[in-house]
Amino acid sequence: MAAPARFIVFVTIFASAFAFAYGHDPSPLQDFCVAVNDADAKVFVNGKICKNPNMVKADDFFYQGLNKAGNTSNPVGSVVTPVNVVQLPGLNTLGISLVRIDYAPYGLNPPHTHPRATEVLFVLEGTLYVGFVTSNPGQNMKNRLFTKTLNAGDVFVFPEGLIHFQFNIGHYPAVAFAGLSSQNPGVITIANAVFGSDPPISPDVLTKAFQVDKNVINYLQSQFWWDNNN
Fold first, then answer.
1. Which of the two ends of the chain, N or C, has the fewest CB atoms closer than 10 A to its terminal CB?
2. Alpha carbon of 192 to those of 73, 110, 115, 221, 230: distances in Å?
3. pTM for the full model?
4. What pLDDT digit, counting tens, does each position of 9-32 carry?
5. Contact, 105 vs 170, CB < 8 A?
């Protein structure tokens, strides 16, 4: 199947899935609530305030460009192109968003979490090794790791808030799309947050938490932690 045809099939599948899904975010109390740019907002709310409905245009519900590959020339070999409420104001209050993920050969979308969303991943091209880790199940029990190797056409779900990753184990570039159950799912990349926070977490804290020599922590905090989210 040619690439444009595969893209059309993917869009059809995701459109059907969203049509029968309930959004994670609070249900809207109006037909739509197109987001106002934060710089123009005069009040702060949990989400974004609504644009005057009389000023709303079709372009407020439109985004163009997910057919274009992202630039994976970076240390992790992947790039995430999001379409959330920031890029598509018409998503405000609708409880869904979308991302495209491009992977170079052996590219990695590093372990991360989405604090506000469950993610369903669809592989368009390539072979990905994916997985997530459960939350702490209780005393004297280990966090469980669930992994799967995915090929084109496969789907995998990452539950809300759990650490997960995708790794391209193929010799060729890979492409995946993911739907998320929030207009603004957020992303916390574990290594970046722990070792690259601003200001840094105290090395004494991390030394004890990871039970390694302080020089190891100092080395990790001195690294440049790449953010692969556009």
1. N
2. 18, 10, 15, 9, 15
3. 0.84
4. 565 555 555 544 455 677 765 677
5. yes
